[in-house]
Amino acid sequence: MAASPSQSPPSDHQQNQSSSSDDDETNTRRDADIRARDAFAKRLRERDDDQTKKKFKAEPVSHESDRSKLSVEELRKRSRHVYLKSRKEKKIDELEQELADEDYLFKGVKLTKREEEDIKLKRIALNLAREHDQAQQMENVDRYHMPTGKSDETSKNDRYREDNRYSDAKANGQSGQNFEQRKWEDEVIHTALPHFGSLDKDAKSKQPKYDYILDEEIQFVQQLTIPGVNEFLQQKEKSKLHEHEDENKRKYRTLLESRKTLPIYKFREDLMSAIRDHQVLIIEGETGSGKTTQLTQYLFEEGYCEADTEDEDEVEDGDDDDNIKLPDGKKKTKKKMMIGCTQPRRVAAMSVAARVAEEMNVKLGREVGYSIRFEDCSSERTIIKYMTDGMLLREFLGEPDLASYSVLIVDEAHERTLHTDILFGLVKDIARFRPKLKLLISSATLDAEKFSQFFDDAPIFRIPGRRFPVDIYYTKAPEADYVDAAVVTVLQIHVTQPLGDILVFLTGQEEIELANEMLLERTRKLGTKIKELIILPIYSTLPSDMQIRIFEPAPPGGRKVILATNIAETSLTIDGIHFVIDPGFCKQKTYNARNGMEALTITPISKASANQRAGRAGRVAPGKCFRLYTSWAYQHELDDNSIPEIQRTNLGNVVLLLKSLGINDLVNFDYMDPPPMETLRLAFEQLYALGALNHKVELTKLGRRMAEFPLDPMLSKTILASETYKCSAEILTIVSMLSVNNSIFFRPKDKTLLADTARQAFFVPGGDHITLLNVYNQWKDTNFSTQWCYENFIQFRSMNRARQVRDQLETLMERVEIEILSNPADTIGIRKSICAGFFYHTAKFSKNGMYKTIRHQQSVLIHPNSALFDQIPRYVIYFELVLTTKEYMRQVIEIENEWLRETAPHFYKTKKLDDDDKVKKMPKVLGKIKAELERNYS
DNA sequence: GAGCACTGC
């Protein structure tokens, strides 16, 4: 069924799809591309010529410095030049060779458009390099004038150089505004010179490291020349202020008009017919194409929400039953079908739903709604539903065939979240026995082919976006200290480039604070010589009021620079960004399945990520992206894509969920990229040990109850065990507090002592879990006060989140039929419950003064922030192992070893754990799992 | 005596 319409290869289909008008359009687009590229090449040449002229006059200076005594700096500089020169030659050779190879190998072969463009670009690059080379043979040319951070004596020479430059410019008849502007800028730079790089006195910073090579230009297609949607709306609203048209009507009409300006609008007919013809369609839509908001509306207008009468006979027996139950027995009361659209993030689901409701002129939560954790804003009448991907996954539990949906759109599929990856396998499966179900997978450019392959060669439909071109600059040589380099680049942009905000990507809070300080210090020294520069940090744990500041516009004549973590890569968009600085790193969580240890490590980003970052500069106007790594590094050292989450995360929860959906063979599940065998094995092993799976690897009753909770299986088990010890209320609190990742205690840098004292005041005997309980209960006693949090160095946001989680868990308790009982004094019962879920995470004090984990015999320490830090309990249970400066157990409680036997008799030997304590051997069934996994993965 | 990328259910 699914196969027949999609037999033609994707590219063919694409061509068939395009009508003659589209052909025209692609032609004009191509022409525009070529023109743009030519103009670009011309600009480059002109600039090079220009600079060659300028530098030509500077020659005597370099001779002069030749004669002077050679300093170490000078020697370094020279050796660097030699290196750069030889490196460049090598690169040019490589490029030449590559092109020659391509000529030879692909002669007469018809290449795809992309390949052709690739070759074309390489040719242009080569030509430019040659031209530049020729220019350099005349002179030792620095391609850009950049602040150099040289010491006073050399800067004098520099000034001489510059002065010559100006006389030269004047001689060429250059004058007027541009000239003055440049002169002014350069003066600013020169007065600034002694201060640049003054923080680090090492020679490195004194080198001309601020040279950028304009290596390539990413061609973001600028399809339409009309103004952006927002601008359009504003204009409309302003112009109609004095009209007497009905407010709502007017608003609706403007919305309708602005919908038509979206790039996707032109493709509507083709798109709809493609959806009619094919069950699965991959939609390759660039940002700004309008797909997320328009697609659902088009589908609705095409009647995809109408109850399908044919389906009634074929597969929808269940629904028939529902209808028969209706008292009137009306046939036509059959529920309308829904169009579902998943998003990876909550905010996106909410805001897009709100926008669509507005465009359709309905109240949000009725015909158009959204569903995210903690908030279901949809109703019986809802026909267009936006939701987070995890939410749809949960819906499978109640409706395994998703019968109430006629269309499913998986948006932002290229982000490859754990949940979308699982969804892929599931929706592909239900599409097989629900031929009427339409499946739309929407993704960014690069991965479309891969998605197509996964969905049995589903056709790809391409929709252009609306974006501005972004110039990409690379450094000539790798930067050792990217924070410093980023700071220097910020200042450089600030003094040399026209107004427009700067976005810097750093890896974490620490780097952001460091960069912030460096920038403050250096701008302070520059004083009023430079324009105003507002520095704004942003990362997820930053208090909300500070976060909001990044959206305030820069002061007139000034500029803002935003120092951000990865949060600015996808999660939030900031308007007005013209410049992006990308050092090329991010923090990633790594999990070592061998010893259960987690660590956050700084790793290079992927190409996809780098391009995403660059794209952030081209949202409102043409932009520039400065990459603090070399073009070679981009080409050869960065992976194409980031490793999908499914391959680097604990799968306990997912395995449990899939098991409860009746998917028994998880090894042969249809993964787009299968998870590592070791991770699956570990998940099975843990679930077996927790009693969620039996010896036949089937889901047990306990496992079914555990699956109800959106938690790690160990936490779910803890909750279920609290029934036995009659302390479910306390356990719910503890589990909720644990699930907001240790961001409860606030520790500002300038008040560490006060904060630590405040934290220690919460300590209670038993350990950290009980301490967390104490914190929550005290907060509750103040009626969840913000002020109390502030006074006690507690993060209100985290507490609020814990409260939300707790509320949700409490309602889920009804489903598993556990009464909520409170027994606050019985910390033994509380700790035994935790033991029942976390017996895997036991560590015993050993002779060497450290703890050893029972499972892996890993040497670990109690975290210094723990309530048990200066105590030495013989047995402890930990919540997690982290590798930071040392191997630490985080969130620890003291236990008695008898409790292990009591709470996990199948896991621990019945004898008392002693010096030679050993974990019971895993039964053979796990050996079987392992063998099966290995067979399937070989 | 330490140190916290980002999501999501």
UniProtKB/TrEMBL annotation:
Cellular localization per UniProt: Nucleus
Nucleus in keyword set: yes
UniProt entry keywords in alphabetical sequence: ATP-binding, Helicase, Hydrolase, mRNA processing, mRNA splicing, Nucleotide-binding, Nucleus
Matches recorded under Gene3D superfamilies: 1.20.120.1080, P-loop containing nucleotide triphosphate hydrolases (3.40.50.300)
EC number: 3.6.4.13
Molecular-function GO terms, alphabetical: ATP binding; hydrolase activity; RNA binding; RNA helicase activity
UniProt GO cellular component terms: catalytic step 2 spliceosome; U2-type catalytic step 1 spliceosome
Compositional bias of kind Low complexity: 1-20
Biased composition (Acidic residues): 309-322
The protein's enzyme class: hydrolase
Principal location listed in the UniProt entry: nucleus
Segments of this protein annotated with the region Disordered: 1-78, 309-329
Record's compositionally biased regions (Basic and acidic residues): 26-76
Entry-linked Pfam families: DEAD, HA2_C, Helicase_C, OB_NTP_bind, WHD_HA2
GO biological process: mRNA processing; RNA splicing
Catalytic activity: ATP + H2O = ADP + phosphate + H(+)
Domain Helicase ATP-binding residue range list: 272-464
Ranges where the Helicase C-terminal domain occurs: 489-662
Protein name: RNA helicase
Provenance organism: Rotaria socialis
